[in-house]
Structure of TRAP transporter small permease protein:
Amino acid sequence: MRGLMRGYIRVADAVNYRLGRIVMYGIFVLMGVLLWSSISKTFFLPSLWTLEMAQFIMVGYYILGGPYSLQLGSNVRMDLLYGEWSLRRKAWVDLFTVLLLIFYLGVLLYGAISSTAYSLGYWKDAPVSYLFGVLTGTEEVGRLEQSSSAWRPYMWPIKVVMIVGFFLMIVQCLSEFCKDVLRLKGEVI
């Protein structure tokens, strides 16, 4: 069992680390879009797409960077008490709180799946099976949701990014859970 946990930790951490290192450069893409927005508003006709594209980039940057942040331990903690605790006590508290986080992320993942199904034109009550059907080719895509802005981009791509981000965050939370279990058993991670 410990070998399986260590293997899972190794794979999950590697995937999220590599993706996080790539996504962290998204801030430069965001800066480029915002710079173009400023230039176009000052010297040319304002671009319709820049504000919404900046929002989409920021969502991807934030959600896909979350697992990397959790892996590095750079998430917000209450260090007033936590910093003085022993490693064993920290592992117990982290073990409990990561379970709450997994539940919360599961709810967010289900909401993202429902929202993505809606954006692909599905209005019934089984969004998970619908998306699985779309992926396997047994379901058809309906009328695609578009933003109500003047640019009118399709909404499904950013919603798919949300699904991927929440799923990877759950994967990383399970890795942190395994690390805490191994720490409680006295192993060094």
